[in-house]
Amino acid sequence: MHMIERWATVATATGLIDDDGSTKPSIFSEMSALAADTGAANLGQGFPDEDGPLWIREAAVAAMLDSQNQYPPVRGVPALRQAIADHQRRHYGLSFDPNSEILVTAGATEALTAAILAFASAGDEVLTLEPFYDSHAAAIAMSGATHTTAPLRPTESGFRLDAATFRAAVSTRTKLILVNTPHNPTGTVLTREELSVIAEEAARVDAIVITDEVYEHLTFEGATHIPFATLPEMQSRTLTISSSGKTFSLTGWKIGWVCGPAPLIEAVLAIKQFLTFSGGAPLQPAVARALTEGDNDVRELRASLDERRVMLIEGLTKAGFDTVRPEGTYFVCADATPFLDGEVGDGGAFARWLPEHIGVACVPISAFCRPGSPAAHALRNWVRFTFVKDEATLRTACERLLQLTRA
Ligand SMILES: *Cc1c(COP(=O)(O)O)cnc(C)c1O
User: Fold this and answer.
1) pTM over cut 0.90
2) Whose CA is nearest to atom 2 of ligand 1?
3) pLDDT (tens digit per residue) in 177-221
4) Is 273 left (phi over 0), alpha (psi -120 to 50) or beta?
5) CA–CA gap between residue 44 and residue 389 (Å, rounded)
6) Which of 136, 246, 249 to mutate to test the pocket of ligand 1 (most atoms within 8 A of CB)?
7) Cβ of 248: how many Cβ atoms within 10 Å?
8) Distances from the Cα of 237 to the Cαs of 81, 202, 407, in angstroms?
9) What count of other Cβ atoms lies within 10 Å of the Cβ of residue 62?
10) In angstroms, rounded to a whole number, what is the distance separating the alpha carbons of residues 168 and 150?
11) Is the peptide bond before 364 cis (omega within 30 degrees of 0)?
12) Kind and range of the H or E run holding 332
């Protein structure tokens, strides 16, 4: 019974439970299934349909043939921890000791979950931006802490954080502040001003800051990713999390990492060792090489994604959507209000209607909000499209979306 209650808490936090208490698939699985059934261009789930660079995959094969197939060290193979330390210094001027301040994890997801479980429990509050990535809400629910949020709101200059609203959401019970930049699903790259507000509040209530930076290299139009740990005096209270999945189009490898002060890393390690202990032995040395020698591949991916981003924004605009131009990530958020009526009344209904009638799949932004929250209400008509698909799929989707204006 107790286990069922625990599942119900997590399921409620992630919207995976129906009003009658039964389990339902996530909106991502539901939309992908609908896309498959209807032959729709799937711009819902955000994973690349192209594999990462061949030479990185060959490095993994070589490691596998070279007997690197048993449990790697719990903190990660030394070459990868060194490569992560070098990467943080080269790109951001941040220094971390590879022996005590860096931990390799089963994707960013494990790092996030282990960090949240290590520092939050019943009675604490964990503050995130809203909308938020679904695993953040699930991990907070598992910890027993209360999930509080501060909204990102659509403005002329993208989805932005309002300083006063953010400050009002921070309380003396706020144990953790979880920051995601570049932000999924809005594409926001938080500015130094926005990050400074978060830093001031974290210092005021002595909160630990966990940052999800998996899209650190996928920024556009001159937007620059600013790691939270680079703000004055913030490195000592920050756990910086990233992953090779998005940067190198290797999402199935699940090689991620967390960097931070040694005492915080020890606490995350204590949890992490009993979640997976370790994994991905032959993949870790390949990711070490990717981080060291892969800057060109990252530049190429960014340029190609930028073209696809522009194509999708143009297609959505032509079809009649109001869009917010993303400065980072793989996603464009669009307001579907012009296409709603009595029967198709909000973003959720629109996302369920679109595959069959127009042949395109997307996901509603409500899937990234707490049910009934002010942000869920404000964004009830919004949907998210991904542009991390090949050009032909995007072109087909854009052509099909034009039928909306004629419908
Ligand atoms: C994809 C994604 C993750 C998951 O990263 P993995 O390395 O695959 O675990 C975490 N956070 C955000 C915001 C993501 O979009």
Assistant:
1) yes
2) 214
3) 999 999 999 999 999 999 999 999 999 999 999 999 999 999 999
4) alpha
5) 10
6) 246
7) 25
8) 20, 9, 53
9) 14
10) 9
11) no
12) strand 331-335
Residue 209's DSSP bridge partners are 177, 238
Helix axes of 27-38 and 347-357: crossing angle, nearest 10 degrees = 20
Q: Over 60: is that where the pLDDT of 1 sits? A: no
Cα distances from 168 to residues 1, 150, 175, 189, 380, in angstroms, run: 37, 9, 15, 22, 23
Place of tokens 């090949």: 390
**DSSP SS3 for 157:** coil
At residue 3 the predicted structure's pLDDT band, cuts being 50, 70 and 90, is low
280-309: buried (b, 16+ CB within 10 Å) or exposed (e) per residue? bbbbbbbbbbbbbebeebbeebbeebeebb
Ligand 1 touching residue 85 (CB < 6 A) = no
Q: Is the CB of 251 under 6 A from ligand 1?
A: yes
* Cα–Cα distance measured from residue 93 to residue 222, given in angstroms and rounded to the nearest whole number: 19
Measure 214 CA to ligand 1 centroid, in angstroms.
Answer: 6
The CA distance from 157 to 339, in Å, is: 24
- Report residue 380 as tokens: 């009830």
